[in-house]
TrEMBL record:
Keywords: Glycosyltransferase, Transferase
Phosphoribosyltransferase domain residues: 22-86
Protein origin, superkingdom: Archaea
Lineage of the organism: Archaea, Methanobacteriati, Methanobacteriota, Stenosarchaea group, Methanomicrobia
InterPro entries: PRTase-like, PRTase_dom
PANTHER family on file: HYPOXANTHINE PHOSPHORIBOSYLTRANSFERASE (PTHR43363), XANTHINE-GUANINE PHOSPHORIBOSYLTRANSFERASE (PTHR43363:SF3)
GO molecular function: xanthine phosphoribosyltransferase activity
Enzyme class at the top of the EC tree: transferase
Record protein name field: Xanthine-guanine phosphoribosyltransferase
E.C. numbers: 2.4.2.22
């Protein structure tokens, strides 16, 4: 099952939605729903409601990290997070950094070193030049941003929507 609640870089969608439903019969089974984190709790709430509709015998929920602001409290968690912060997992690093890169660019045109210093100032994140360049090139291929040369200096900016 895949449930999505966030877009790139912590951008919350209006509500969590089931992207890929369960394609096997789980009626009468004991089900453990596992996720990395609870934030608002909407993902697990929706997941439990959905799994419940498939008539399992029991449902339990488990996450690695549980934020106490979550309205849904899982049955099991590895760590409780009291002070809210956005957590970047290795498996979501690219997606999170790409989203933050777009936020940093906003309506500005920045070179790589400026983007890196914005990462440090705004998010306390050290992003390597090579990693950032890969992200910038990918975003440019997706036509989200564009590379411009100003006085022989390479800079990056968001593409205007009517530009695509
Ligand atoms: O408690 P919530 O506020 O709903 O947030 C927690 C959910 O958000 C993230 O998933 P995301 O929507 O980013 O999908 P992904 O795991 O596919 O990146 C995370 O992996 C949890 O599933």
């Amino acid at each position: 099952m895949k449930v999505e609640h966030y877009g790139w870089g912590a951008g919350m969608k209006a509500e969590a939605g089931i992207k890929f439903p369960i394609s096997t019969d789980i009626s009468g089974k004991k089900v453990l729903i596992v996720d990395d984190i609870t934030d608002t709790g909407e993902t697990l709430r929706l997941s439990v409601d959905y799994v419940q509709s498939l008539k399992p015998a029991e449902i339990r929920t488990a996450v690695l990290q549980h934020k106490t602001c979550s309205s849904f409290v899982p049955d099991f968690y590895g760590q409780k997070i009291i002070r809210w912060r956005w957590i970047i997992y290795p498996w979501a690093r690219y997606e999170d950094l790409a989203g933050f890169t777009e936020k940093i660019l906003g309506n500005e045109t920045f070179d790589v070193s400026r983007i890196r210093s914005e990462f440090k100032d705004r998010y306390s994140l050290e992003v390597g030049e090579k990693e950032l360049l890969e992200i910038l090139q990918d975003l440019a291929e997706r036509k989200e941003i564009e590379r411009v040369e100003i006085d022989k200096l390479v800079e990056w900016r968001k593409r205007k929507k009517d530009n695509s």
